Amino acid sequence: MSAAAAAVTSSAKLAVNPHKISSLSSRSPLPSAISIRSKRDIPPKRLILVTCTATGDGAKPTVLVAEKLGEAGVQLLDKFANVDCSYNLTPEELNTKISLCDALIVRSATKVGRDVFESSRGRLKVVGRAGVGIDNVDLSAATEFGCLVVNAPTANTIAAAEHGIALMAAMARNVSQADASVKAGEWKRNKYVGVSLVGKTLAVMGFGKVGSEVARRAKGLGMRVIAHDPYAPADRAHAIGVDLVSFDEALSTADFISLHMPLTPATSKMLNDETFAKMKKGVRIVNVARGGVIDEDALVRALDAGIVAQAALDVFTKEPPAKDSKLVQHERVTVTPHLGASTIEAQEGVAIEIAEAVVGALNGELASTAVNAPMVSAEVLAELKPYVVLAEQLGRLAVQLVAGGSGVKNVKVTYASARATDDLDTRLLRAMITKGIIEPISDVYVNLVNADYTAKQRGMRISEERGVLDGSPESPLETITVQLGNVESKFASALSESGEVKVEGRVKDGVPHLTKVGSFEVDVSLEGSIILCRQVDQPGMIGTVGSILGESNVNVSFMSVGRIAPRKQAVMAIGVDDMPSKETLKKIGEIPAVEEFVFLKL
């Protein structure tokens, strides 16, 4: 029986799920309830992104490395986990192994499809892609199964950019063809006259990390650089002297085209017969991104027609390509076997970057390189850290105040902040509130990856509002308010004037605090367990409740009282380090001035 989901309530006015207890009072049957749900404990104070499910006391998690990884990365993994380096697995072998693994690390060759996640039976929590592209991982299946996918987007950026420049220069000067000719005993200087790069227009298609680094280097070679990327900020392009243009303008004006976009349904075969027809005759194409963005048969036709003068390719639709591939064998095509990230420095960097991301994720840390979770920068993660804890705790607190049988369908979250609306990223907070609400009332494990998916599957609608405050924007948030609509409450005082279960909190000195329950203001540190009592405001109440808890050896960590007016109703919030017994809670409920109370385990 899990303490994490326990909620013990007593009320003189509310009778909620009165099973398992006959009478806890000799004076009169107290309509009291113990509502306990069996579920594994979820530590409330960690920023849980994923939790390793390795079994056994102190057992290390198991990480399967399915493709060659740099030694530095393997050594880092070895310090934290049991590492299984098994390369060249068949799909069947991978599916068999994966049910024993907590994390999987791959490069580009291994396909991680839905069958892998199904075969893992819920154990696989992290997939690490040692590199940038993630088109070999089924992200929708990973999200559905609550598996985080992380990549290593920075370590091989320079290597890929350098390889793109190297291919462009080699292509322009016919280096590979001339090399093969000389080694064959020929000396045909006139046949391999090339073209200069200076003064030529290079169109960079995809202005991300690699694309922008290619642009920098091309500028240094004296080229005019334009770029097409619907998501790139113009100021970043202008900062390095690059003009952002439309797709058609890039195609029609470029002497060289360098591809740096991911492979998605929108970019698949983006260069095809139709787009080749729009290009300047004699254009030269470099691809160090993904093979699937080019229709390879159409490229062969464009080469034969003279539309494309030359191509330099590091990637292919199918790798390795067929030995008799017309594209690979074409005399005006320079090819390399997917060497974009293949430098000693990049291999080492990628290995370390992906190993750190996987270890961090298994440790429950928030990953800034996650590709199927809210994408939040490291700076924002650090700033939001205490608010993330607050968000989850408010969700857990709110759902434990809902009476048994009431399904939570409508959730309203209000963020009060002095910051501008576009300067507050709430995706992470929303995910943690969802996690806090769903986990205590279900057997589903929720993390940042599958929070929105899980909420949608349960028909839970979450709306968000911003409350703009005057004052200093130094802190990202003043308060977070969570309201659950169309539900009954175990603790009537938790209902707002409009009838929703309502809790509000803020961060004080880095510690999450509960500051309002319903219409009552309190000041409670959100840690351990909490007893909320609605009472008649009269002298001696704090001492009376404190004495009952002390006699039962239950340590009180704090007390706070919020009241409407002197001698009227008040709500007392009591923090306790231990879970009180049924008898102790019964004694609190028997105090004449106590109208209702609820015990909550966070």
The beta-strand count equals 24
Count of helix runs:
18
Shape: elongated
Order of the strands making up the biggest sheet: 10-9-8-11-12-13-14
Low-confidence parts: 1-57
- From the helix content, strand content and strand pairing, which structural class follows? alpha/beta
N- to C-terminal distance: 15 Å
Measured by DSSP, the beta-strand proportion falls in 15-25%
Indicate the radius of gyration in whole angstroms.
31 Å
Strand count, sense and barrel status of the largest sheet are: 7 strands, parallel
Percent helix among the residues? 25-40%
Average residue-wise pLDDT: 85
Catalytic activity: (2R)-3-phosphoglycerate + NAD(+) = 3-phosphooxypyruvate + NADH + H(+)
InterPro entries: ACT-like_dom_sf, ACT_dom, Ado_hCys_hydrolase_NAD-bd, ASB_dom_sf, D-isomer_2_OHA_DH_cat_dom, D-isomer_DH_CS, D-isomer_DH_CS1, D-isomer_DH_NAD-bd
GO molecular function, one term: phosphoglycerate dehydrogenase activity
Domain ACT: 530-602
Short description:
With 602 residues, the chain is of the alpha/beta class.
Describe the structure.
- The protein is of the alpha/beta class and 602 residues long.
- The protein contains 18 helices and 24 strands.
- The chain has a 7-stranded parallel beta sheet, sandwiched between helices.
- Helix 2 runs parallel beside helix 3 (114-120), helix 14 runs parallel beside helix 15 (427-438) and helix 15 packs across helix 16 (451-457).
- The protein is elongated and about 105 Å long.
- InterPro entries: ACT-like_dom_sf (IPR045865), ACT_dom (IPR002912), Ado_hCys_hydrolase_NAD-bd (IPR015878), ASB_dom_sf (IPR029009), D-isomer_2_OHA_DH_cat_dom (IPR006139), D-isomer_DH_CS (IPR029753), D-isomer_DH_CS1 (IPR029752), D-isomer_DH_NAD-bd (IPR006140).
- Pathway: Amino-acid biosynthesis; L-serine biosynthesis; L-serine from 3-phospho-D-glycerate: step 1/3.
- One of its GO terms (cellular component) is chloroplast stroma.
